[in-house]
Design goal:
The strands form 2 sheets. Strands 1, 2, 3, 4, 5, 6 and 7 form a 7-stranded mixed β-sheet that branches. A two-stranded antiparallel sheet has the order 8-9. The chain starts with a helix and ends in a 6-residue tail after the last strand. It contains 1 helix and 9 strands, in the order αβββββββββ. It has a single domain, classed as Immunoglobulin-like (Sandwich). It is an alpha+beta fold and 147 residues long. 16% of the residues lie in helices and 42% in strands.
């Protein structure tokens, strides 16, 4: 193979890989509330923020006592942020498992966990630009007791 053919082949591979990675990058979960590993009082709302618009097709919450019914129904319209009302959660560790379908039609699944401790502060939700990492100053608590 001559150098030009090798260059063309490598360019094609890099471009194909870059396009695939770009599609996957927008489907990943960027931020949650409660955050991964965070200890909070029972959250009244759970928020999932993705890197791009997705259809959220599954969200399951499991605690020490088993599955928690959060009343989730799959979402037909693609969006980047999802807010879900949460029932009262007893003290303990919870695992949230989710599945989303990205713009490219591929599904992505993952999980995160948090701990509920009645004496812990409320989860803080950042409604600012997800790329600003909370610099917008628009964070606030969703604890029923904090008014």
């Amino acid at each position: 193979m001559n150098k030009f053919k090798v260059f063309q082949l490598l360019t094609a591979v890099v471009l194909a890989f870059g396009v695939q990675m770009s599609a996957l990058a927008h489907t990943h979960l960027e931020m949650t509330s409660p955050k991964e590993g965070e200890t909070v009082s029972s959250p009244t709302v759970m928020m999932l923020t993705f890197g791009g618009e997705v259809r959220l097709v599954r969200v399951e919450v499991k605690g020490n006592a088993g599955p928690v019914d959060i009343g989730f129904t799959p979402v037909a319209a693609a969006q980047a942020r999802f807010h879900m009302p949460m029932p009262f959660l007893a003290a303990g560790q919870y695992v949230v498992t989710w599945t989303a379908i990205g713009e490219d039609g591929h599904s992505v699944s993952d999980e995160f966990s948090f701990t509920v401790d009645p004496s812990a502060p409320a989860a803080v939700m950042d409604h600012g630009d997800s790329h600003s990492h909370g610099a917008s100053g628009e964070s606030h608590s969703h604890d029923d007791h904090a008014h």
